[in-house]
Amino acid sequence: MLLLSLAWQSLKNRRLTTSLTVFSIALSVALLLGVELVRVGARDSFANTISQTDLIVGARGGSLQLLLYSVFRIGSASNNISYSTYETFRKHPAVEWTIPYSLGDSHRGFRVVGTNEDFYARYRYRRDRRIEVVAGKAPTGIFEIALGSEVARSLGYKLGDAVVITHGVSEHRGILDHDDKPFRVAAILGRTATPVDRSLYVTLYGMEAMHLDWGAGAPPMPGEETPAAKLKIEDLKVHEISAFLLRSKSRIDTLRLQREINTFAGEPLTAILPGVALTELWRTLSYAEDALAVVSFFVLAVGLLGMLVSIYTSLNERRREMAILRAIGAGPQKIVFLLVAESAILSVAGAGLGAAMIYSFCAVAQPVVEDKFGLYLPIQAPTPLAWTYLGVVVGAGILIGFVPAIRAYRNALADGLGVRL
Amino acid sequence: MLQISGLRFAYGAGAPVLDVPSFAVERGERVFLFGPSGSGKTTLLGILAGILKADAGEVRVLDRDLAAMSGAERDRFRGAHVGYIFQLFNLIPYLSVMENITLPCRLTAERRARLNGVGMPYAAAKVAQQLGIGNLLHESVANLSVGQQQRVAAARSLIGTPELVIADEPTSSLDYDHREQFIELLFESCKAAGSTLIFVSHDRSLMPLFDRCVSLPEINRVGR
Ligand SMILES: Nc1ncnc2c1ncn2[C@@H]1O[C@H](COP(=O)(O)OP(=O)(O)OP(=O)(O)O)[C@@H](O)[C@H]1O
Ligand SMILES: [Mg+2]
Q: Which residues 89-148 in chain B show a CB within 8 A of chain A?
């Protein structure tokens, strides 16, 4: 107890080097924990790009491809599924809800998604967040369109603006524009920080109307198009969609449904579990986080070496102090304990300050980071890995403390009481 | 109180420093030990305090043979029964006067027990009073003059009334007036505590104040 208080007072006496040392350890700990936090946050945000959807169903094909085009709007479906098949599963007794997606068109590089009102009512991301309409009303008319927040922001569109949709996916206005049937912006969606923001949404009827009169992927001859003004929802019939999201009534049904869909006799289908598919995809991307962790370990090593240097260099000027402690009855082991206690205090303080730094940074930066990068930094108890990091820092600090301590031990035995200054 | 016989000592594998066939000090005696520089005075004190271990022979202090004890036992023995004053820089710079004086009691339970139930601050104040530094207890040691520092060192060596007080040239950095005054205060305090005093100095003018004067080269066969 006395030795701990001596260690503490001695550190206090060397305020400047002590605080610099603690600060440098704290910085490396903060970095290490920060990397871990971003890792967990990124993984969680990624896994929750889409929530509450139990199955994603598309035409038979690769599961990664299905995940990419349905969730991330990357790539496209090689085949569609018929609307009647979709209807079969929509009305399936084990199914709670479905959201249909009809893909394939774009507007200035942003994907256009045909869907229905269930998208606005049922779609969930980050566990339980729903799509919000921040301006206007969700599209119901054939030529109404809703803009994802990033589309609205980067193109500067307002409610009522006209939007011409391009057939296929192209950065620029293509040759195959549906310019005979412009859409009106009816709604602007709230920011979700997910790929939802980077798409435009029309009704399935709108999607159908655009492609009316088209044959075999070619537009109708000029003058042969059905005029937009003449189209009514009652006249339109949806033939196919690209994929649909599905929630089953109970989690037990999910796997049974998946099997049922994968072996569906009507047409070849693929159903994937989005959670599993997202985790698999994340694993292939995780080498970056390992690289970050390696860098922060080097930073930590530098911080701990700084501590070693600062204690070690102070030893010579403290030789007299050690001789005094020896003279009043402190054994060489106590000298060792004193110095190890000092490095333990330094590393515990460094680890504590580092954790405090990163958590307060998180508390402040959380909304900004979420808004800017779509990365939700969870303020939660340290993960097991974070605890391991903290343990390693304190353990390494104590171990390193033995280096000057053993040197002081040798001095204490060799010096006797005749320390000359 | 203290008997040495057949003591031999060398630092590591170096040349022998001490070879003392016999030497003894009575309880309550005040002994003046002198000898040329490098003759081994500090080394002998280190052995008496149990910091250094004799290579051969017997070192009996308070009827216990230090030469036969383990390092930890000698440390505990020193903490409980010995007070030590250095020539200079006796104090831990980051502790107050009070904290410096009470240090031995805080480190060793046996020394604390010797306070006879009196609180540490009270015991420290009492011994500081005797040495004329009662008003400095809460000063930082950095603000003290050298003479005041030596008195704090004396107070620390005397707290808990150790049987043996060892002083290694404690007055060599003091001027003549302060020297006499310091020694008188030290004597009084040793007497009050019933402690035996072994005092090393180059200053032969102090010799008349002591009960007995010992020349180290006369008892040490090394260097003769
Ligand atoms: N820690 C040490 N390691 C090795 N040799 C030492 C050590 N301390 C002292 N010596 C040697 O032991 C001998 C006796 O030294 P010591 O300090 O006991 O002399 P001293 O009589 O106290 O001298 P002074 O009057 O100068 O204080 C010297 O030759 C010295 O060089
Ligand atoms: Mg000496």
A: 89-95, 103-104, 106-108, 111
Residue-level pLDDT at A221: 64
Binding-site residues, ligand 1, Cβ < 6 A: A 414-416, 418; B 11, 14, 17, 35, 37-43
Q: Taking the CA atoms of B134, B138, B144 and B146 in sequence, report the sign of the dihedral they define.
A: positive
pLDDT interval class at A134 (50, 70, 90): very high
Asked if A328 has any chain B CB less than 8 Å from its own CB, the reply is yes
Q: Is the pLDDT of residue A215 over 80?
A: no
- The identity of residue B73, as a single letter, is E
Which residue, among A313, A203, A230, A274, has the nearest Cα to A54 in the 3D structure? A274
Q: Where are the alpha helices (DSSP H) in A199-331?
A: 204-210, 251-262, 274-284, 287-317, 319-327
Provide the sign of the torsion angle of the four alpha carbons B25, B27, B32, B34, taken in this order. Answer: positive
Q: Which residues of B touch A328 (CB under 8 A)?
A: 78-79, 84, 103-104, 107-108, 156
The closest alpha carbon to A108, from A220, A217, A198, A208, belongs to: A198
Cβ pair A81, A240 in contact under 8 A? yes
Task: Encode burial over A118-155: b for 16+ CB neighbours within 10 A, e otherwise.
Answer: ebbebbbbbeeeebeeeebebbeebbbbbbbbbbbeeb
Which atom from ligand 1 is nearest to the alpha carbon of B45? 18
Chain B CB within 8 Å of residue A2 CB: yes
CA dihedral A307→A309→A311→A317, nearest 10 degrees, is: -160
Tell me the pLDDT band of A31, cut-offs 50, 70 and 90.
Answer: confident
Domain chopping of chain B, boundaries: 2-219
Please tell me the distance from the alpha carbon of residue A292 to that of residue A152, in angstroms, as a whole number: 34
Residue B74: pLDDT band (50, 70, 90) is: very high
Q: Of B156, B9, B67, B70, whose CA–CA distance to A418 is shortest? A: B9
| Section B178-200 average pLDDT | 89
Q: Are A310 and A347 in contact (CB under 8 A)?
A: no
Q: Is pLDDT above 70 for A419?
A: no
User: Does ipTM top 0.95?
Assistant: no
Does residue A92 have a pLDDT over 80?
Answer: yes
Q: Which of B103, B112, B173, B198 to mutate to test the interface with A (most CBs of A within 10 A)?
A: B103
Confidence of residue B22 (pLDDT cuts 50, 70, 90): very high
pLDDT of residue A182: 87
Any CB–CB contact under 8 A between A284 and chain B? no
Q: What is the pLDDT of residue A222?
A: 61
Find chain B residues with C-beta within 8 A of A330's C-beta.
Answer: 75, 79, 107
Question: Who's near B86: CB < 8 A, 6+ residues apart?
Answer: A323, A324, A327, A417, B153, B168, B170
What is the distance of C-alpha A201 from the center of its chain?
Answer: 24
Does domain B2-219 fall under CATH 3.40.50.300? My reply is yes
